[in-house]
């Protein structure tokens, strides 16, 4: 009898639907991860409505708005890349993924300047300034750094996923007949986008 | 019984040789059966370590005053005992070991949907476990917060909370990925003809469990991350000194940790549901009711977390709502007990070791369940909150429920996993001693709790002395029983028992294949034409 290798055992069964269900389930998990933070945010905002309102004025709506537009466009480019690959247009797929990655990078650069501005004013987690803030301000900025920071980590993870996908499209491992990875990376990217859609109004636009 | 001519068979998963030999062949294997056993051996190690810690604590409590350890050591020990038993044994528990090993076989599949992810879950489990253990030795001493890491103490203690919480976070990841894997597997890989309502009930239990793992674990994950951020960066979330709300921490913690109780108990109930029809030689009573009750437990179990906080400060409206929901969640559990006993009615019972375990499970689980109602009702909870009563209650559920089911499942499936039977007489003797010891250990704690003995103290007033002696002696008897059980199984594993394919004449799919199963479980994927328990 021929020896069966474990590799064979693992890969013999390719199931794109399973991969997609798996990704959706993972997205549910991610939503609840941020869900915990949204609960904390709601409770503390309810407890400190005035402080939250005043603290949010320290944030630049323009920066937040630009980043929102960047992420929305990047969601569109990812969606286009999937349609392009389904139509077997590899070049367009790669172009669109490249643009998505570029937009993601721009988002992070913006974030860097935004955070950097705060840091320059001595406003960062653990700083003397932050320790001396009033309770409501402290909670607002703790949540701000924590939630946008965690979101930033998700942006980086999404970029890694999209980067791997781009490489695999290039080598042909992801192609018009086998694009579950692209779809899943795209789904993940939409999630990252969606979370920002909630973060933006909660931190930048509140009244 | 089947003829044992191994030359005609494909290699079984135990003797199969892949790219690597020896231990490497195991820790690089994506075979769900090997991963199940990896979990099994690592979990038994942690379980026994947890037992030793428990014995030490019971010894400390044999009489008032300091016996073998002071307050700080005792605090560290109950924290580590809780962390080990909860996060490293009962939460992965029955699902990680027997779910991994048997779920694909029960539904007629060759493996889970994502075998490599499955192996990764085990690695995450081990990494998390190592970090929890490291927390004992580095920094300013072992964490002393209890496994609950309640704020603000967990933010203020000098002990090494960050490492322990990081470990728990990683263990949560492992749990989420296992749940995800099982859910997808059940959606995609059921054998042809196996509709949802022909799936063995252990599968259904794991399905409900998987959803809890997915939807509850991330909440505690983020909470632990916030604790880490608060400790490392000094940003405020839960410390009242900087505006945080420690009650909010408790809410977030129990939003996961109460459903986690169902992560522990649902697969255990599932395993019992497999054992009972096999030995009653009769189809399960109320298949659909059990399916619905599994899903109902998973669902309602989400909304009862507040009953851990009746004395923490909540509005009276939320208290009675949580109390009501707590009573509601008892109903589906009771439905299962009725179904198990109704299955036995007019059956021809085959009295064997796994069946004894199942019956012992029902007995202790019911004591645990009823005492849970005492804690779920507002007035009585105020009296027994944070007393030994609570400790007795959750040991009856977690150890008496999940632990008994774990050993029941082990005795049930052992012949399938290793193709050996163990010595039944020794196994039964071990069980009886274990059962007596268990009840002697935990039952007096109900009494102590009612008298008002608080939990988590290394010392107590002389009025609690006699019941504590009983409890400590019980712990020795239980440990003796456990030792007998384990040695008996090790001897069987080493090959003293006779080789068998199926000593119980079971009807679910795992009993249709040779023992130990071949690498791909089935030479040909079976076609399912009827429900799982056709006797």
From TrEMBL, chain A:
<dbReference type="GO" id="GO:0016491">
    <property type="term" value="F:oxidoreductase activity"/>
</dbReference>
<keyword id="KW-0472">Membrane</keyword>
<feature type="transmembrane region" description="Helical">
    <location>
        <begin position="92"/>
        <end position="113"/>
    </location>
</feature>
<dbReference type="InterPro" id="IPR035973">
    <property type="entry name" value="Cyt_c_oxidase_su3-like_sf"/>
</dbReference>
<keyword id="KW-0560">Oxidoreductase</keyword>
<dbReference type="InterPro" id="IPR013833">
    <property type="entry name" value="Cyt_c_oxidase_su3_a-hlx"/>
</dbReference>
<keyword id="KW-0812">Transmembrane</keyword>
<comment type="similarity">
    <text>Belongs to the cytochrome c oxidase subunit 3 family.</text>
</comment>
<dbReference type="Pfam" id="PF00510">
    <property type="entry name" value="COX3"/>
</dbReference>
<dbReference type="GO" id="GO:0019646">
    <property type="term" value="P:aerobic electron transport chain"/>
</dbReference>
<dbReference type="GO" id="GO:0016020">
    <property type="term" value="C:membrane"/>
</dbReference>
<feature type="transmembrane region" description="Helical">
    <location>
        <begin position="139"/>
        <end position="167"/>
    </location>
</feature>
<feature type="domain" description="Heme-copper oxidase subunit III family profile">
    <location>
        <begin position="1"/>
        <end position="207"/>
    </location>
</feature>
<dbReference type="InterPro" id="IPR024791">
    <property type="entry name" value="Cyt_c/ubiquinol_Oxase_su3"/>
</dbReference>
<protein>
    <submittedName>
        <fullName>Quinol oxidase subunit 3</fullName>
        <ecNumber>1.10.3.-</ecNumber>
    </submittedName>
</protein>
<feature type="transmembrane region" description="Helical">
    <location>
        <begin position="64"/>
        <end position="85"/>
    </location>
</feature>
<keyword id="KW-1133">Transmembrane helix</keyword>
<dbReference type="GO" id="GO:0004129">
    <property type="term" value="F:cytochrome-c oxidase activity"/>
</dbReference>
<feature type="transmembrane region" description="Helical">
    <location>
        <begin position="21"/>
        <end position="44"/>
    </location>
</feature>
<feature type="transmembrane region" description="Helical">
    <location>
        <begin position="187"/>
        <end position="206"/>
    </location>
</feature>
<dbReference type="InterPro" id="IPR000298">
    <property type="entry name" value="Cyt_c_oxidase-like_su3"/>
</dbReference>
From TrEMBL, chain B:
<dbReference type="GO" id="GO:0004129">
    <property type="term" value="F:cytochrome-c oxidase activity"/>
</dbReference>
<dbReference type="InterPro" id="IPR023616">
    <property type="entry name" value="Cyt_c_oxase-like_su1_dom"/>
</dbReference>
<feature type="domain" description="Cytochrome oxidase subunit I profile">
    <location>
        <begin position="20"/>
        <end position="529"/>
    </location>
</feature>
<feature type="transmembrane region" description="Helical">
    <location>
        <begin position="248"/>
        <end position="272"/>
    </location>
</feature>
<feature type="transmembrane region" description="Helical">
    <location>
        <begin position="426"/>
        <end position="449"/>
    </location>
</feature>
<feature type="transmembrane region" description="Helical">
    <location>
        <begin position="354"/>
        <end position="374"/>
    </location>
</feature>
<dbReference type="GO" id="GO:0016491">
    <property type="term" value="F:oxidoreductase activity"/>
</dbReference>
<dbReference type="GO" id="GO:0016020">
    <property type="term" value="C:membrane"/>
</dbReference>
<dbReference type="InterPro" id="IPR036927">
    <property type="entry name" value="Cyt_c_oxase-like_su1_sf"/>
</dbReference>
<keyword id="KW-0812">Transmembrane</keyword>
<feature type="transmembrane region" description="Helical">
    <location>
        <begin position="159"/>
        <end position="184"/>
    </location>
</feature>
<keyword id="KW-1133">Transmembrane helix</keyword>
<dbReference type="GO" id="GO:0022904">
    <property type="term" value="P:respiratory electron transport chain"/>
</dbReference>
<feature type="transmembrane region" description="Helical">
    <location>
        <begin position="119"/>
        <end position="139"/>
    </location>
</feature>
<keyword id="KW-0472">Membrane</keyword>
<keyword id="KW-0560">Oxidoreductase</keyword>
<feature type="transmembrane region" description="Helical">
    <location>
        <begin position="469"/>
        <end position="490"/>
    </location>
</feature>
<dbReference type="InterPro" id="IPR023615">
    <property type="entry name" value="Cyt_c_Oxase_su1_BS"/>
</dbReference>
<protein>
    <submittedName>
        <fullName>Cytochrome c oxidase subunit 1</fullName>
        <ecNumber>1.9.3.1</ecNumber>
    </submittedName>
</protein>
<feature type="transmembrane region" description="Helical">
    <location>
        <begin position="394"/>
        <end position="414"/>
    </location>
</feature>
<dbReference type="GO" id="GO:0015990">
    <property type="term" value="P:electron transport coupled proton transport"/>
</dbReference>
<feature type="transmembrane region" description="Helical">
    <location>
        <begin position="204"/>
        <end position="228"/>
    </location>
</feature>
